[in-house]
C-alpha cells in the first residue's frame, strides 16, 4: 500500500503542471489536484499494481475538470478570469525568453479547453496519441484533429502577439 501511495505522490508535480495548463488560477489548479488525489486515494484499489499511476491519475483529473466545466456552464459562471490589457506583462521582464514563455502560456489559455487539453497531454506531458485519446475519452482521430486545430490556433495567436510586441508607440 505504501508503494502505491509513494508512486502517486511522485506524480504530483506533473498533475500540478497539467492542472495549471487547464486553469489559469493557481488556487483553482491546486484544488483540482487535491480533488484528484483525494479521489485516487479513495479508489486506490482500481489502480493496477506494476503500472505507472500517471495515466490513471490524469484520467481522474481530466474527468474532474470536465465535471467542473459542466457545473460552471450550467450555472452560467465564468470558468476563468479574463486578462486585462497588459496584465500578462505587468512586471517588466529581464529576458526575452520570459516574455516568450508568458506569451505562449497566454496563447495556450486563449484556445478552447478541449484543444488545450489535447495539446498539453501530447506536447508537454509526453503521452502518445493513443494514451492521450484514452485519457480524454475521445477517438484517436478526434484527438489528432484537436491537436492540429489547436496548433494552428496557437500559431495565429503567437504571430499576432509577436507583431504587437514589435510595434512601438512614439509620442511627440
Automatic annotation (TrEMBL):
<dbReference type="InterPro" id="IPR039425">
    <property type="entry name" value="RNA_pol_sigma-70-like"/>
</dbReference>
<comment type="similarity">
    <text>Belongs to the sigma-70 factor family. ECF subfamily.</text>
</comment>
<keyword id="KW-0805">Transcription regulation</keyword>
<dbReference type="InterPro" id="IPR013249">
    <property type="entry name" value="RNA_pol_sigma70_r4_t2"/>
</dbReference>
<keyword id="KW-0731">Sigma factor</keyword>
<keyword id="KW-0804">Transcription</keyword>
<dbReference type="InterPro" id="IPR053866">
    <property type="entry name" value="PhyR_sigma2"/>
</dbReference>
<protein>
    <submittedName>
        <fullName>RNA polymerase sigma factor</fullName>
    </submittedName>
</protein>
<dbReference type="InterPro" id="IPR014284">
    <property type="entry name" value="RNA_pol_sigma-70_dom"/>
</dbReference>
<feature type="domain" description="PhyR sigma2">
    <location>
        <begin position="8"/>
        <end position="62"/>
    </location>
</feature>
<feature type="domain" description="RNA polymerase sigma factor 70 region 4 type 2">
    <location>
        <begin position="102"/>
        <end position="154"/>
    </location>
</feature>
<dbReference type="InterPro" id="IPR013324">
    <property type="entry name" value="RNA_pol_sigma_r3/r4-like"/>
</dbReference>
<dbReference type="InterPro" id="IPR036388">
    <property type="entry name" value="WH-like_DNA-bd_sf"/>
</dbReference>
<dbReference type="Pfam" id="PF22029">
    <property type="entry name" value="PhyR_sigma2"/>
</dbReference>
<dbReference type="Pfam" id="PF08281">
    <property type="entry name" value="Sigma70_r4_2"/>
</dbReference>
<dbReference type="InterPro" id="IPR013325">
    <property type="entry name" value="RNA_pol_sigma_r2"/>
</dbReference>
